[in-house]
Amino acid sequence: MVKLNKIYTRTGDDGTTGLVDGSREAKHSARIAAIGAVDEANSAIGFAICGLEDEAHRALLTRIQNDMFDLGADLATPAANGDFSPSEMVLRIVDTQTLWLEQQIDALNEALEPLTSFVLPGGSEASARVHLARATTRAAERYMTELAEGADVNPAALAYINRLSDLLFVLARVLNDNGKSDVKWVPGANR
Fold first, then answer.
1. Model-level pTM?
2. Are 129 and 191 in contact (CB under 8 A)?
3. Quick check: 34 and 144 in contact, CB under 8 A?
4. What is the rounded average pLDDT of the residues 146-167?
5. 20 to 30 A from 43, CA-CA: which of 63, 126, 168, 180?
6. pLDDT digits (tens, 9 = 90+) for 108-134
């Protein structure tokens, strides 16, 4: 369990932040940018939860918020020689977390109206909030893939963030009366 007695440490006043392995990186590095983007996505998911009435949907997103902290911890722990094995001391995203997302997507997707067009992010307020979380999750994925160009990133973490945006898209449609209230994109409508 994490115990925080003091919120400020002053160790980051020099523009660096500490990683799990004790090393320090610039606060603007690709790794810290990816961790920050995951935090932003998690915050957007929290905002989405506040707009949900259905307890099952709230529980789904709350579980995901916990996984997002796991993801941040994974990114904050550079791999030793590309080893992404979890241990008692190293928290990693694992394939079963992504598999769980896929199972949730399949269950949510069963009642949806088939897509006949791209949908605009909106409809109900709850759906719009989840679409915002989806968009910030896609941004986190972009930061993570940018990090992966120059550093080892857990492949399971990359799969997880990709699948999460899919789940949020499907959930946003569920919140629009199972897709019946989706706002359809009309290409070139305002030309």
1. 0.92
2. no
3. yes
4. 97
5. 180
6. 999 998 888 899 999 999 999 999 999
What is the H or E stretch that residue 17 is in?
A: strand 16-18
CA-closest candidate to residue 38, choices 126, 141, 191, 120: 141
Token pair of 40 as six digits: 């932003």
Distance CA 142, CA 19 (A): 21
Closest C-alpha among 55, 51, 75 to residue 63: 55
Q: Please tell me the distance from the alpha carbon of residue 125 to that of residue 183, in angstroms, as a whole number.
A: 12
What whole-number distance in Å separates Cα of residue 107 and Cα of residue 50?
22
Residue type at 93 in one-letter notation: I
Taken in order of first residue, the domains within the chain and their CATH numbers are 25-82+91-182 (1.20.1200.10)
147 neighbors 36 (Cβ within 8 angstroms): no
* Other residues' Cβ atoms within 10 Å of the Cβ of residue 19: 17
CA nearest neighbour of 72 among 178, 175, 161, 138? 161
Determine contact, residues 75/138, Cβ cutoff 8 Å: no
**Rounded CA separation 79/152 (Å):** 7
